[in-house]
Structures are given as structure tokens and as C-alpha cells.
User: What shape does this take?
Amino acid sequence: MTTDLTTELEEMGRRARAASHLLAGFTTMQKNNALLAVAQELELAIDTILEANAEDVSRAESHGLSGAMIDRLRLSPTRIKKMADEVRNVAELPDPVGKQLVRWIRPNGIEITKIRVPIGVVGIIYESRPNVTSDAAVLCLKTGNATILRGGSEAIASNKAIVEALSRGLEESGLPRDSVQLVPTTDRDVVPIMAGMDQYIDMIVPRGGHALIEAVVTHARMPVIKHYHGVCHLFVEQAADLDMAVDITVNAKCQRPGVCNALETLLVEEPVAKAFLPLAAKSLKQQGVELRGDDATRAILGDDCLPAEPADWTAEYLDLILSIRVVPDFAAAVEHINHYGSHHSDAIVTENTMLAEQFLNQIDSATVYWNASTRFTDGNEFGFGAEIGISTDKLHARGPMGLEELTTYKYQIRGEGQLKQ
Amino acid sequence: MTTDLTTELEEMGRRARAASHLLAGFTTMQKNNALLAVAQELELAIDTILEANAEDVSRAESHGLSGAMIDRLRLSPTRIKKMADEVRNVAELPDPVGKQLVRWIRPNGIEITKIRVPIGVVGIIYESRPNVTSDAAVLCLKTGNATILRGGSEAIASNKAIVEALSRGLEESGLPRDSVQLVPTTDRDVVPIMAGMDQYIDMIVPRGGHALIEAVVTHARMPVIKHYHGVCHLFVEQAADLDMAVDITVNAKCQRPGVCNALETLLVEEPVAKAFLPLAAKSLKQQGVELRGDDATRAILGDDCLPAEPADWTAEYLDLILSIRVVPDFAAAVEHINHYGSHHSDAIVTENTMLAEQFLNQIDSATVYWNASTRFTDGNEFGFGAEIGISTDKLHARGPMGLEELTTYKYQIRGEGQLKQ
Assistant: This one.
């Protein structure tokens, strides 16, 4: 790692820390006005941003990037207007900062108040989509956090143009320019250096593939909120309404297979397997889903179902593929999910209230469903108004991560000269 | 690192994970009954524990450990009875697990409930005091968490005897024996191996000195809740009640200087420095406190005050030493504290309500005081009933860490077949 790069990043860290202390003192109205100015600057900069984006896209094409990658990278006037609208949407949301969480008075008269405060400096490390630049920075601004953004190298020109627009909006509104900083280089050493800067960065959110998250987790000295994969399960218990079970299976698998809350493994309790599996298979086949089952499943479905390999039980296909297993009983289903799952979103379909409640309690996942599709694990579906992502971690933020999860708390204590006895 | 050791620790991890899934299903009454059985087994094992402890103490003496170290290591019938009483105290406390934090219904009819649940498996890595073994394990048990304990090598025999007693209590009560496991070896490779086991350990709490915490932070892949140092400040603002300011200074510095919430740096606003410093110095000198001041302080106090070096502004003395600085104004005090402090506990003394509120908001510390001693940063003083420590981290747990901070949450969603549109 070059010393120069370390020095440059540490200087960004110092400036971010200073900006975060100032940001914490701005009112909700000041922050919202700044967000509205940012939205306007984004719209005014459409031509500049598109020009920078065209540069990124042509470089990506000459490097032979896949069509899907280029699609994620490419901006349009509509996409930039959508970015600006999203910023205005965040301005409308309630500000969690300053909220009194609890207050009590001790026998010695000291008054303890626990209030929500910004975290401080948030590092965001992400891959190709340039709209993450604006979305993540703005959610952090709303909650009084400074950000250091490190986007994918493919989007560097677009990201610079977007941050330029954000900075103009901040300056017009009197907020510190250093509230949002983009790492200007695409040097690969940036990730390990940033991950080691726990004196300046309070939390890192990596948004991207497995390799990126691994690199951050391996080097990070500060808390990392991971947005990992979702190996989501649906368990069809013997007292299930089988029509509902088919509908939820198809919805959770097919409505949008490429996302983390889509279904990957179907578990069916043995007594209903013969009645349920042919029904489910028929609907899934109509949607073009490839089935991979254990022996018991294949004994029922025959050649409509390929044999599952051990790797299928931990696979996040993100595609029209579904693994299926017949389980002897409720306990075996719970054990399978807690063992093979990724603790993201798991569901049971049953009319047995007692077993449903047991499932809701025993499954060790961020979001556990009874008679509903796993696809609802999402900040907007939860009514959070905006989300920075879906945390697969257990501490600080678990599941959909909205504005509240971009804050922490502190204790304010008011006394009249109390001394410790 | 030896493969054998890794295999052994991973096997402990697997057993802890399995125990944690069972533990999450026990009722508060079952857990409390187990705690009472544990307390009784500790008292029944007094002779065995003392015998093991004598072995540790004589080894420590032959290795030439300091008297203070040996004092921390040594148990007595009274100390073991106190351990047992502490376990009974924890049984009396309310159980945070299962508490509904918030519940709402979405327009599509799904009902979302956010409830407190155990974290899962907690790793505790600590140094010489054997009572941590019982205290930490029991707080985790109460909150439904399994623990993997790694105590100091000096206390290995005592810790084994204590965990034996805990295990007997668990078995009598039908709780999984693997709920509490002690790493049986004192191999130095244990810390890096444990810190890498994020598939089995959800959170690590290191309790000990700087080197121990550094080793854990460097290797940890899972969240670490640090109990770091406290460089605590008191700012005497120009509108302070000077008598109150002297009392708080002396209390915060002298009542128990060796703890993390004791005062280390005194800041005095210039207009009151001449009136306040001689008063404070007189009382501090009576308590035997060594003063180290900047030039402005020494201009007032003369030879009663040694010159402060740059290192004094970040020092945690844990001793009867106090650094003193005269600051030109309120902003300079805030900047000094946010820059040099450790974000633990900081106080202002003033009769100016507006400035006090600004201080409470602008100081970026876990606990911020107005007209009270910093010594109140403590789970018992907060009324938590018990504490696992004082977190110097910002996320998940900040400041005094009680039972609630040993839990996380999950979302339970109840539907009637809802599908994502």
C-alpha cells in the first residue's frame, strides 16, 4: 500500500470527522432544505452527468463488460430525474435524530435521557450502479452522518459528476462540503486502507458481491453492516392451505428471482408431500422454474425434478431454480432452515396457529413469515420510506435498514451537582 | 496455528450454536430456576473452587506476578458467596427476551412485530479475574445466549472449577450443558482462532487491557463490543457554580481513580480560571493529586502544577494525576474533548442552561453530563441491575451495557396468504 494513498485517505477521514461534528448540529429543516437543493442540482447537472456516464459506458464496452453490467452502469435523463425524486422523497421522511428514546430519574435525582444521534462517519463501499452514490449519501445526510463513498471503478466518472452536484447543493445550503466525499482513485488498495481507518470511520456498509464483502470483513476494524445473500426457505406444514402454499411458493420464487428475498428452498412435510408437490410443480413449471429435489421429492415428481446435490441446500440461485426437500416433521424443517439458511427471510404456511408461533420463535432469521411471501423483506414494504439495504447481520441493524438504523444513541445526564458516594 | 486446536474450537462453536437454538426456547421461569440452581452449585463447590484457585495463586506467585494481579486472582469464601449472590440478583431482574418493541399493520394486511431475541452465541475473552467467568456467563444465560469463555491463563484452574459448578446447575435444571463452555487450553492461538469463527460466534466482548482488545479487533470477523479506556473530561464553563465545580472535580478524580469513568482532564474557561484553579488545586492537593497543566494553568498555579506534555491530553492515568488546560471559550472546550477524548464520559459544570444543552448535544460521547460527576457511568448507577461492562463502541451497545444490550431483535410477520404485487 502506498503511503501517499494512506495519507490522502486519512486526510479525507479527518475532514469527514470534522464535517460530522458540524452536521450533528443542523436542524431537520436545514438538512431538508439542503436535500431539496441537492435534488435541484442533480437535475441541473443532467447533461454533465450523462457526459461522464457515457465515458464510463464506452470504457466498459471496450473492456468487454457484460450487457447486464453495462445496463446497471448506464444512466438516462429519466434515471437521473428518479435519483432527484428519491432525494426529495427522503426530505419528506421524518428525521429520527434527536428523538428521545427513554428518560428516567434515579433516586439521587440525576435525570438520564437516551436520545437518537447520528453515527458520525459512514463508509459506503459499492460496485457498479452509480445511483447508489446519491441514494446512500442522501440517507446518511438526512440522519446527520458524513459519508466517504468508494464506488466501483467502472462508474468513477459518473460518480464524480454526481458528487459534484451533491456538493454544490450542500454548499448553497450552508452544510459542510465534506459531508459527502468520494474517493477519487480506483486503486485497489483503497478498500483495505479504508477498512483500517477506525479512528475516522464509525461504520462501513459494503454493497456488492461476495468478494467485496469478504475483503471488507477481513480488513475492517470498525463495525461492518453486511448485505449478504438470502437463502430463503418456505416450509409447507401438513396443516397448510395447499392453494395458498402454491401461490406463496410461486410468488416468492418467481415474482423477481434475482433478489435476496426470493425463495431458494422449499421444504414440504411428509404427510402432504404427495398432495402438494404435483400442484406446486405444475405451477412452477409454467413459470419455467427448474426443480432440484431430494429422493423423496423425485419419487413423487419423477423426471420433472432433477436430483439435488448437497450444494443445492446452501445455494442462492438468484434465478428460476428451486431446491425441494421432503422433511419428516416440523422439527426437521426448523433444523434444516437454521442449519442451511442464511438467516435472512424464511416462511411457514400452515393453519396450525401453535406451530406457526413456534416457527416464528425458533427460526433464527431477521424476518420470519407465517402465511406470507418472503418477498416482503424490504424497507419500502415495511413502510420505512427508504432503505439503505437489508442487513444480514444480527447486531445494530437486522433485516431492512432504514433511517433509524443510520443512527445510534447517547445518554444525556442532567444533575444538580450530584457526586458518587 | 495448530489444526487440532482449530478443530477443537470449531467443535465448541458447533455445540454452542446448537445450545443457543435450544436456549432461545426456554421460558423466563426455566432460565431463572437454572440460575438459582447455578448459585447453589457455586456455594456447594466453594471448597473445590478454592482448591483450584490456590493452585492458580501459587503458580502466579512462583511466576512473580505483581501483588495487584494476585489480588485480582485470589478468591475467598466471601468472594464466591458474592458471585452466587450476584447470580441470584440476575435471576430477579426482568427478562428482556420476547419483549414486543413495536408492532404495525401494513395496508396489505400483513402484521409486522419487532421483538427482542437472544443474540445467539457470545464470546467473552478476558483476563485474570475469575469472577468474570460466572458474571458474564450468567448475564448471557439470562438473555438466552450461549457463551464461549476464554479466561486468562493465570486463572485457568479456578475458571474450570467455576464452570464445572455452573454446568451442574444447568444440567439439574434441564438447560443444555453446552450453554456455557470454557476454552480448556491456555494456548495463545485461541484468540485469533475464536475471532475468526464468525459462523459460530455472533459477538465477542473482550474485557481486559489494550493488547487483548487490539488482538481481538485485528482478527475479528464478527462484531466486537469493546470496553476501552476512558479519557474523561470536566469543563468548567464561566457561568459555573465554582463550589459545585470543585466538588465534582474532586469526586470524579479521586473517589476511585483506577476506573474508566474517572476524570483525567480538567478544562477551565479563561474568565474563571484565576478564581477557580486555586480553589480546585487546594482540594486536589489535599487528596494527593498530581497536577499537570498548560502554560496558562501554570501561570496561575505556579509550582503546584507540573508542565503538561502533549501525551497528557490523551492519557488515561487511572491514578491520582490530573491534566489541566485553560481554554479561551466554549467552542475550544468542545473541540478539545471531541478531539482528544475517548468518547466515554464528559461533563460540563455551568448555570447557563443554553450552553449546557449545546454541550449535551455537541459532545460526541456515550454519556454526557451537566452538573454531575462522570463517575455515574455504570450499569448499577443507571439502574440496569447488572452490567456486562461499559461499551466504548458506537453501534449496538454504547455506554453501560445491561441485559437489553445482550439481545437483538427480529421481525415476525403474520399474514393470510399475502403475495408481493
About this structure: The mean pLDDT of chain B is 95. The first strand of chain B starts at residue 100 and ends at 105. Chain B has 15 helices and 16 strands. The radius of gyration of chain B is 24 Å.
